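Recall that a protein's primary structure is simply its ordered list of amino acids. Everything else, from secondary elements to tertiary packing, is in principle encoded there. The following example makes that idea concrete.
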Amino acid sequence: MSPVAAAGHVCWPYDDHPAFEAHAAAVLRAGLEAGEQVWYVPGDGGGAVAGLLTGHPRAVSRADAVRVVPLAVAYPGDLTVDPAAQVTAYTAATEDALAAGFTGLRVVADATAFVRTEAQRDAFARYEYAIGRYMRTAPMSAVCAYDRRELGDQVIAELACVHETGPAGDVMFRLHPGATTAEVILDGEVDLSVEELFGRALRRTDLRPAGGEVVLDAGGLKFIDHRSLLTLQRFAEARRTTAVLRTRFAGAVHLARLLDLPHVRVEVTR
């Protein structure tokens, strides 16, 4: 993935901090070229990214174009984030950037400190999903970085799956916000190996039924097994709604019929 293509909501696990900082600088330079205000939120290890941007013409012409924002300022409160409050904070920051004449806000944040415990991860993953919904229509983009060496592959997958995009191979599926609060986008493959992860990701969405239904736009879904359909059934039943799975994977229709799932409807799309 090229840095310029990294606009949107990106999960970026890293194994080497200097290499990550070089990538972060490239992403932020692309934001400056697009007329955005750019924020770098370093993790525990600090960072030299701002120094890599000081010579950029837009950074020279506007002192407020590049901001290095401490974790405690970008994510106020304790290290367990309040999802709604954090979305409000970034909404205000984006609006401030627009009012100052920028085209939007681009953030690169090392959020490792916020996901070290299970309770932290649950709150932050809910926030990641919610801010992803905001970024669908707002002029904000973000690269959310995590130290794989500290967190491990399982935690990385837990966080990566609620992002729109990221490096290939970090997660088998992605579950990220759709066009409305009743819609979610499901891409990739969902099988026994990620059954628990899929259920956890579903519970962390802010899906709200419309007309008694929630919709999984699964045009990019390559495979789903019967256990994952049962997970979707339990999710929908608990919320007294019907989950509509719209997918090109015709095998899901046959599985749903065999399982007789009253709270799941599979629709094959082209």
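Residues 118-137 form the longest helix (20 residues). The chain is about 40% helix and 25% strand.
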